Amino acid sequence: MGRFFKNLAFTTLVLVLVLAIAAGLGAIVLYNRTNLPDPNKDFQTNTSFIYFNDSKTKLGSLSVQNRQTISYEQMPKSIKDAAISAENRTFWSDQGISIGGIVRAAWTIARGGEMQGGSTITQQYIKILYLSQDRTMQRKLKELVLAVKMGKQVPKEDILAGYLNTIYFGRGAYGIQAAAKSYFNVDASKLTVPQSAVLASILNNPTLFDPSGGAKARERLLNRYRYVLDGMLEAGNITQAEHDEYSRKLPAFPEVPINNRWGGTNGYLLKMVQNELLDDGFTDSQINGGGLKVTTTFDPAAQKAAVATGQKYKKLAGSNAGKNGAKNLHPAIASVKVGTGEVLALYGGDDYITSTRSWALQARPAASTFKTYAVIAGMRNGFSLKSKLNGDTFTPQGDSVPIRNEFSEQYGDVTLQKATEDSINTAFVDMMTQIDNGPSAMLKAANDAGVPKGSGWDLNNRMPLGVAEVSPLDQATGYATIANEGKYVPSHVVAKVTDSSGKTLYTAKTKGKQTIQKDIAHDTTYALENVVNEGTGSAVSNLGYPVAGKTGTNGVGDDITSAWFVAYTRQISTAVMYVAGDSGNADLDPYAAPGDSTFFGGTYPARTWASYMKVAMKGLPAKDFPKPDWVNLSGNHYGDTERETMTTPTPTPTPTPSETRTPTPEPTQPSTPSRPEPTQTSSEPEPTDTPSQPEPTDTPSRPLPSLPKPTLPGIPGPRDGDDGDNGATGR
Q1: 535: closest CA among 630, 650, 438, 633?
Q2: Is this model's pTM higher than 0.70 or not?
């Protein structure tokens, strides 16, 4: 038995020696084969630059690496001493690695824990320059080898200077120079001992120790700060008296000017770009430190025009409400290129730092601009532009609240085309009541156009009146789908992304999908073109280009809470929305132009649209829209129901004695079926590319829009405005 144990012990000893020799040889081979890169050559700041669609005009930059490299000699002794005290007190004597730290990390792993730090300043510097932040054994082993090599080949002073020039201090500041500016608004060379001790404390965990994080963060920082001062005293860097004085409290933190990268109107665009890059699969580290070149869809001339126009009419309309009126008025402009979905311009606020809310992305009641999707739903269910509808006040079956038009106007029987031109509430509600699941059909039409469901999308027959909340960008996208003959292309702001070497990493997809029948899109455009030429949108008819669009004014009781004009040419779709107040729900009527009692969509919103589009369309040809196909008349037939068609001229509207809105409550029993999926149904015939059908013989020929020299239209009178309230909406 004793001989057995002696043999076992001998065998074990041999195995241990073999393993030790193998490990040693492996370490030698690894050490010899691992080359130390040149930190000064390989290290880059990796700021990502954002450009307008010309790829030349700079929009801004996205980078957490706000850094300005300084030399070792420019760094004060206090920051060198403080950093060593905070992170690696054996820095001047160790070989680049900490044996104690390695043992602690190994013990943690042996107990089933995660890979820990235990890193010296040299190891941290190696990790920053050459390695990932992954906590793996392979990365840790390579870090150790490189740290040993660096400790032997690079002077300690260079290692410390490189470390202090690259380490992250929070607040987007990389390196001691940027950190000194970010926290104390001084150059690094001017840092005091307490300030240096604070910065050395913060770099351990910038989020945890940032003094702007509140009382608890300052308390954590104070404890860490005192630990650093203790180390400096122990090393003889400060006297006992200095230690005691500094330890009483943290130094003062002055108010530091905010980095203006996000300032002004460009801040909103940069945030959109950042968010879309994340959605497209880029990581935060790639976006903010990957050295990307991002070409956006924003057109510099169009964006400048959107900002100038928005600010101009904000001031002009705001002055109608008094000295401080403009402060509470919020015009919003969103402009999309038809056929590609490229967002050309966006205005929704004046300064991103002051307010991060962009009104161009904020959903508000769409009012009668939402009726466009009812037109599509109607034609999908047997209605034509000549179908007869009720233009008078009436109470739908099963409802106790009458539907009224603006100023309670009575129109008699009207066509769908006339109802669209004059934004006749009663006619649209009448159409919804005649369609099986009419509100669901309308919701599907909006979804197919690219408008996502939002707040206020209750499925009831009053849905065309526009309680549904939609953002200007979504409305511009939805109308762009119609302008694109029913092909939907998602709106986007990132066109192309390349890396620092010029390699293309991403290109936006701009291929459209036919979500609305082509002939229905043609007829919808024809109806909207007549809104501009003959109806409530006539304020923009002198632009000099064929225009199709819709006005919208949302009324709640006696207040106008949103006013819209959404329209398109063959090339550009633009939505303009006005709201007021902090929440965007205040009354707009105080901002109405002199002589107008109501802030209609056909007034300032239409003028804003025309002023912006005059610049955005500059240099583009005037293209006519496709001719109407006269769906459900001489063209394709959709739906199983034959609808009554008007063959006589539409009567002239006769206003009732009442010329004021009569507030009425919402319907008490709305229907709420589930939302259908926005997909093209197979039962409806596919659109074809055959020549358009001729007009019915009982209708006049289609008027072609004239092309006069562009002029800025004046504000129309109240009767060029919009329709009624019915408790929540108007034209």
Answers
A1: 650
A2: no
